Amino acid sequence: MSALLSFQNVWLEYGDKVVLERVELAIAERSFVSIVGPSGAGKSSFLRLALGQERPTRGKILLDGTPLPGECGPDRGVVFQRYSVFPHLTALRNVMFERECVGAPLTARLFGADRRRARDEAAAMLAEVGLGDALDLYPAQLSGGMQQRLAIAQALIARPRVLLLDEPFGALDPGIRQDMHRLILKLWEEHALTVLMVTHDISEAFNLGTRVLTFDKRRVDPHAPHRFGATAVYDLHLTRKRREAIVEAQQEVLRLTESVITGKEESL
Ligand SMILES: Nc1ncnc2c1ncn2[C@@H]1O[C@H](COP(=O)(O)OP(=O)(O)OP(=O)(O)O)[C@@H](O)[C@H]1O
């Protein structure tokens, strides 16, 4: 498999604060990369670099072998934990908006056949994420899970090759999270996406990822914590079998923990 995105000796610094250092990664096309690590390890900064929102202080980022353009392009979509959608637009208009901006960059309004085409495309995308019945609802009228479905539809309407997810399911209840996991895996396959997902949930990372990266600092100066940056200290490529074995082991640990807790409760 060829590398779609490569990070070559990438550093990110703010003044004298080193956030990331020596990041050296080749991300294969159609992989699902989960990114974990302690708070402040630079995971979101890494996503912003991949998005083109942030430029590396040193090093190179290549997309398909050519330097990443200096701004976010349609080839990369992003979903954040919250607030990815426009609150004053209906679900349909939220998703149509991208088409309108591309079709009419000055006014962001399409007319006639162009508008109908954008509307149909947006409605189909919303149906694909399970929001076919919610086209005319505003984000405030949608549950947290539905809002994230909307944010995903909004990111995918531009047909990106790379989807960047920054803790997209972090604010959702466990049951809803599982539905979202099924959805994102389906979309990953059907849209032939390459996904980079930051999460704090280790089982989510292993459940979804074909590769799990852990960002952390290799070296620490206790007198100057800002002196050294983080990098990918662990890089685990997962086969389907290995991933299933890890998820099964995690579920067994959960089952055991639950039975210990229940046992204690019964003996009280
Ligand atoms: N614009 C900025 N200016 C200065 N420092 C910044 C800026 N953006 C991020 N940082 C710093 O970079 C470090 C990494 O932040 P980042 O949000 O990437 O970490 P993270 O691993 O995603 O954290 P979390 O898991 O808590 O979301 C933090 O110390 C943060 O304060």
UniProtKB/TrEMBL annotation:
Residues 5-242 form the ABC transporter domain. The keyword Transferase applies. Transmembrane segments: none annotated. Keywords: Acyltransferase, ATP-binding, Cell membrane, Membrane, Nucleotide-binding, Transferase, Translocase, Transport. GO terms for molecular function: acyltransferase activity; ATP binding; ATP hydrolysis activity. InterPro entries: AAA+_ATPase (IPR003593), ABC_transporter-like_ATP-bd (IPR003439), ABC_transporter-like_CS (IPR017871), ABC_transporter_ATP-bind (IPR050166), P-loop_NTPase (IPR027417). SUPFAM superfamilies: P-loop containing nucleoside triphosphate hydrolases. The keyword Acyltransferase applies. Belongs to the ABC transporter superfamily. PANTHER family: ALIPHATIC SULFONATES IMPORT ATP-BINDING PROTEIN SSUB, TAURINE IMPORT ATP-BINDING PROTEIN-RELATED. This is Lauroyl acyltransferase. It comes from Sphingomonas pokkalii.
